[in-house]
Write a sequence for this structure.
């Protein structure tokens, strides 16, 4: 019996359709809910839909409270020499469609989907201070 002949499935010797193994795109089914029946819902930071917490794409963001232009002004006006401004800490959850749309994650091909290592992090190198006084030897 083939899955393309449904009229032959039912009968006295064959009461149910044949089991056909469907292809699986991801080994975890797009979730990290192993052994748990249910996980709580979280709010998507972009569209406010409710993805499950284990399925949502999570990003922890640390940024300065003020922008860099205002930071220089505050640093010049402060009386303390070693004062560090507080930072703003948030954890954002995104549904899969918003994460792909806003480029938080990218679509990967079949071989790259199996790679579970985090992508390499690129940090800006500190700029070297050149002698701008014009004294070149």
């Amino acid at each position: 019996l083939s899955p393309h002949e449904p009229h032959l499935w039912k009968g006295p010797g064959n009461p149910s359709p044949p089991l056909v193994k469907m292809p699986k795109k991801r080994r975890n089914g797009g979730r990290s809910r192993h052994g748990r029946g249910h996980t709580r819902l979280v709010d998507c930071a972009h569209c406010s839909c409710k993805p499950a917490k284990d399925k949502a794409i999570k990003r922890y963001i640390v940024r300065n409270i003020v922008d860099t232009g205002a930071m220089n002004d505050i640093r010049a006006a402060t009386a303390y020499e070693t004062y560090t401004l507080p930072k703003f800490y948030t954890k954002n959850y995104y549904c899969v469609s918003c994460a792909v749309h806003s480029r938080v994650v990218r679509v990967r091909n079949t071989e790259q989907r199996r790679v579970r290592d985090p992508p390499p992090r690129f940090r800006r190198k500190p700029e070297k201070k050149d002698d701008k006084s014009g004294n070149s030897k």
